[in-house]
Amino acid sequence: MFxxxxxxxxxxxxxxxxxxxxxxxxxxxxxxxxxxxxxxxxKGQAFTRIRIRNLKDGRTTEQTLKASxxxxxxxxxxxxxxxxxxxxxxxxxxxxxxQMETFEMAQATLAxxxxxxxxxxxxxxxxxxxxxxxxxxxxxxxxxxxxxTETDPGVRGDTxxxxxxxxxxxxxxxxxxxxxxxxxEIIKVDTRTGEYDSRVK
Length: 201
Description:
The chain is mainly beta.
């Protein structure tokens, strides 16, 4: 349905501890790997402790995998799509994405959005993971520019940043910004860390 951006995954996959810990994500019917920690105890077999996000409700659980464990990998595809608009409010919000080559539309729930919703206001191009013609995960651009809608007044002449202060962005996300940054200014945010990067204007 959607052309791939980063390739599709399919077939059986071995839950190899060291590979998973180095960041090779696993995706199967039960859920998507979010974090992995390779553990090599003094005695006994090494294993990998992973955190899995349920693809339907967004809940996370922990599971322990041995190097010999295998799972049937989900037939999922990563593709580039643009956020067109958002419907609804609160937990009932739905994000509508468009495939720019075919103009096909697909919707993402709050569970599928994860933390990506914090950084998207519309028209951003994202990498989305599609499974059974449904969006199950969304990756926001590495950097976004967003307007500050609420924060304490800036401290004139203070460019050091100090301990910083909280600032609410136009998407509703809250980040810490330097003391000299003011309300209504636009800032650049690193979505991978959720941290302030620089002031745009």
